[in-house]
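Dear support,

I submitted the protein below through the web form. The confirmation email said the job was done, but the results page showed an empty box. After a refresh the structure appeared. I'm attaching both so you can tell me whether what I see now is the final result or a partial one.
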Amino acid sequence: MAAVRPGLGRIIPGSSILFLCDMQEKFRHVSFFPQIVSVAARMLKVAQLLDVPVVLTEQYPQGLGPTVPELGAEGLQPWSKTCFSMVPAVQQELDARPQLRSVLLCGLETQACILHTALDLLDQGLQVHVVVDACTSRRSRRSSRSPPQTAGCWASSMARTPSSAELPTLP
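What the results page shows now:
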């Protein structure tokens, strides 16, 4: 993968991928969980409409349960993981996409899984867009945003996806 010129931050469907991290049954008690899943579900719909690949992980599914159905990810095969970062579990997906330049990252736990995934992706020269309205942790949502941002990620929102001219109308 070629290194990305720093500072651009443009999200282009043909060179992007959506990562959905660990939105599982046992995390339902986490602050803002319904809102996080709702925004991530919209991100998933946009990705599918734009033919952006999607990667879904589940942290230790035997103990934390499956991905919640309201995410709308029934057609996706989840990758099981037992470390914080998504990258070791999905490295072959990344390797299979030499055109990849940016990753949109949604999910749980911001201070652990999102942070470690972001750091691993940055190490590979990719731009990382942490979708802040689709991420949270057991800590407060506000304090959980800062670790990936200080690491060099883009703090993005649902509104930062490709321009409205590029998007079909969402239901």
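Response: this is the final, complete result; the empty box was a page-load delay. The helical segments are 33-49, 61-64, 87-95, 110-123, 141-144, 146-150.
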